[in-house]
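#struct-help
A.M.: can someone run this one for me? Single chain, 359 residues.
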Amino acid sequence: MTQLLLDDGTRIEGKPFGALVSVSGEVVFNTAMTGYPESLTDPSYKGQILVLTYPLIGNYGVPGRAIQENLSKYFESDHIHISGLVISSYSAEYSHWNALENLSDWLLAHNVPGISGVDTRAIVKILREHGTMLGKIVQNKGEDVDFYDPNKENLVAQVSVKKKMIYPGNEFRIILVDCGVKNNIIRCLMATGATVIRVPWDYDFTQDDFDGVVVSNGPGDPQLCMETIRNLETAISIGKPIFGICLGNQLLAIAAGASTYKLKYGHRGYNQPVLLCGSEKTYITSQNHGYAVDESNLGKDWEPYFINLNDGTNEGIIHKTQPFFSTQFHPEASGGPTDTKFLFVDFMDMVKDHKLQNK
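D.P.: on it. Structure tokens below:
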């Protein structure tokens, strides 16, 4: 039997699937009912053992390795980023027109272990009461595996691209700071027609020719990305449009004078309600983050853009006069609701207006 061990002493036995290896990491949970191919390939899960609350997982399989030459169409990156997967009931048999392999074989191909046959909702209750914990999936009783805290490392440096990549488009040049970007952010930007210039997390883009900046999602503690924060401080002084997403919201907020803190158990799922500040408009959003912005020390020229209706935490910031804004949620969805996809259009409108005004 495979075991899930939490650092509070909780020990849970289950059945193994995927790779028969032992791993350690931060144990987090996701409340989504679908979308595990997208979640497992989201770089924001780097270093984490993911607990899925939906009881039946695997019944629609995954797009197989035979069609992975078109990764951007089916996944959020080119490989699985979670350290391990915890589910209630695993279905080895799948039924979906686009599936070519089962979940266990996909995990095995990426050397990622899974454990099933456990009460995932009981695990979530522990995490909600005590907060996110370190944990490990162990294949053999008595095996010595140390608890590992991924947030002590700069995970962004591990998942970011190593060199500049260009996706050709029209005359509008958008710098995409890759802190662990999801493929659908790239797709959404390309859908606007823009030329997307994807750069490493620590690349100084402020000397380049660009019309706007997008700062992506990513894993870990934002305070470990000081190079990105310094570049954003310079970008703010330049004045060209900036759009931050998830980790990008936190990094932009720090550059604007705010601070961040670790949430008790984070927001991970496709059903998080947010309110547009100063209105009665509510949107259902896709989220995956463990840190949040403390807006109490945000610069006087900034204000909250969205708030989370479940716990009142910050879900975005916006400058009062300049074309800078960010969201803690994922407007690109994938998987999840597309309620806020319009923000990519809003950003490109800012880019076009700014360029026209400064000709």
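A.M.: thanks! The mean pLDDT is 95.
D.P.: also worth noting: The chain has two domains: 2-152, 155-357.
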